[in-house]
Amino acid sequence: MIQSIPVYDICSLSDVRQDDLLVSRFAPYLEAHKNLFFPHRHSFYHLVLFTHGAGTHTIDFESFDVNPGQIYFMIPGQVHSWHFDGFTDGYIINFSANFIQSFVLQPGYLDGFSFFSGNLNDAVVNLPNESFATAKQLFEAILTEITQPAPQGSDMVRLLMLQLFIGINGLNATPQQVGKLSYNQTLIKNFQVLIEQHYADIKLPKDYAALLYITPNHLNAVCKDLLGMPAGEVIRNRTLLEAKRLLTNPKLSITDIAFKLNFSDNSYFTKFFKKSAGMNPEDFRKKILNS
Q1: Which residues form the HTH araC/xylS-type domain (predicted)?
Q2: Which of 39, 103, 189, 263 has the highest count of CB atoms within 10 angstroms of its CB?
Q3: 122 and 257 assigned to the same domain
Q4: CA angle at 93 for the pair 88 and 97, rounded to the nearest 5°
Q5: 168 and 247 fall within a common domain
Q6: Same domain for 160 and 221
Q7: How does strand 124-126 pair with strand 70-74?
């Protein structure tokens, strides 16, 4: 079977597995895993706080400049690569959903943080000086708990991580993001969850509307109101993203990718991709691989 882009789990990045968690200073982690410069996916949540360095990191084909004081968050499945200029350091935490979920016992708890939504505008945060200092202190405390294990040390790590998440989530939160979600916000989240599950086999807004027990017009109106685009475009954007992810693997032919995404033939897939991305799939592949 042709393999897709490499997917790493926590075990493949560490000789020791501890409660679905890996915590490290970034420079030694980078030295030990030089293959991570190339595009890859994670099966876990991933965050990095930069304290030194320059260059770029790329998440789902959007590039960000590396700056000290910057923290970025990734969710499972996103495509990621790095290109650093000179010495780069900071802190890294990789953790499974279960590591937090088993502690808070609240379904979908991590989804409540804006930076774990998959929206890249929220995933990369440049911290103010005071918040940067606080974040470094929390990372150091987490490292201490890892390197000098104490009774209930794993629970202390979880508490420190939650303190970090809650503090950063509050930096850019709007009044609408604080407290209980509205009905329409919950509807959009459920729509996005369904797209994530079915983007390859369900293409039409009316079918998602049926799964949500609402009319297509209602779904479209809510998407335009909260996301600024119709429901059909939300679905197409997710399909396009997956097509781009698959195109980073040169072992997959255009036919393979069209089949994986349930397009009837190559020409239909190519037409869809060119209309959405502004270039045909082969040109996109060449651009990514050459870069």
Answers
A1: 189-287
A2: 263
A3: no
A4: 150
A5: no
A6: no
A7: antiparallel
3-state secondary structure 66-79: CCCCEEEEECCCCE
Residues 238-287: pLDDT tens digits?
A: 999 999 999 988 888 999 999 999 998 899 999 999 999 999 999 999 88
Reduced to 3 states (helix: H, G, I; strand: E, B; else coil), residue 194 is: helix
CA Rg, the chain, in Å? Answer: 20
b/e sequence 168-179, b meaning 16+ C-beta within 10 Å: bbeeeeeeeeee
Q: What is the largest CA-CA distance in the chain?
A: 60
Quick one: 83 and 116 in the same domain? yes
Residue pair 94/46 in contact by the 8 Å Cβ criterion: yes
Q: What are 275's two structure tokens? A: 């209309």
pLDDT in tens, 110-155: 888 889 988 888 999 999 999 999 999 999 999 999 988 778 888 9
Q: pTM, whole model, 2 decimals?
A: 0.80
Mapping DSSP to helix (H, G, I), strand (E, B) and coil, where does residue 277 land?
helix
39 neighbors 5 (Cβ within 8 angstroms): yes
Tokens of 62: 């959007």
